[in-house]
Amino acid sequence: KIFKNSYNLKKHNVTEHTERKLTPERQQCKLCGTWYRHLAGLKTHMKNIHENTNDEHRCHICSKVSTTERALKRHIYLNHKCVRKFKCSMCLKAFKRGQDLRVKHISLHTGEALYTCPNCPMTFASSANLYKHRQRLHKMEYEADRQQAIPPHIIKQTKTSTSKVRSFGVSNALANPQIVIN
């Protein structure tokens, strides 16, 4: 495997090559319901999607307003630039991201439910359907979850850990652009 920096290499070694494999607990965003494999993914999501900023980040193509500059760049790439190159072998539908095909779309063919409503036993194949379900049928609970303050420690931890990782990764990347293990 090839890694961009030694941080990713170390993380890989801990999760894949230790006697006692660590399986992080999945985390769900309380604001939009998106699931992440571990707390680090949730922290990044909170910072990039839900952190309030006073700046307006408007798409020059369709005028959509994003919450952060990174979210705007992602929007432009996924909605205006990216080609649908991941094709389903069962129905030939194409996707821009491999994870959308592997995780979300294939579940439609297998019948596997990926999302469960926290307020009732209903299950869904997509987070968008869960989101709409909660908005329509569980308005009070949904609004209460949305109004819940973002835990400041998540955003604070993200800022400190991200700056450490970035500074370590950048200097390391300059010295060693690719780290290879066999």
From TrEMBL:
Belongs to the snail C2H2-type zinc-finger protein family. Keywords: DNA-binding, Metal-binding, Nucleus, Repeat, Zinc, Zinc-finger. InterPro entries: Snail/Krueppel_Znf, Znf_C2H2_sf, Znf_C2H2_type. Its main location: nucleus. One of its GO terms (molecular function) is RNA polymerase II cis-regulatory region sequence-specific DNA binding. This is Zinc finger protein 90-like. SUPFAM superfamilies: beta-beta-alpha zinc fingers (SSF57667). PANTHER family: PROTEIN ESCARGOT (PTHR24388:SF54), ZINC FINGER PROTEIN (PTHR24388). It comes from Glossina fuscipes. One of its GO terms (cellular component) is nucleus. It is found in: Nucleus. Residues 27-55, 86-114, 115-143 form the C2H2-type domain. PROSITE patterns: ZINC_FINGER_C2H2_1, ZINC_FINGER_C2H2_2.
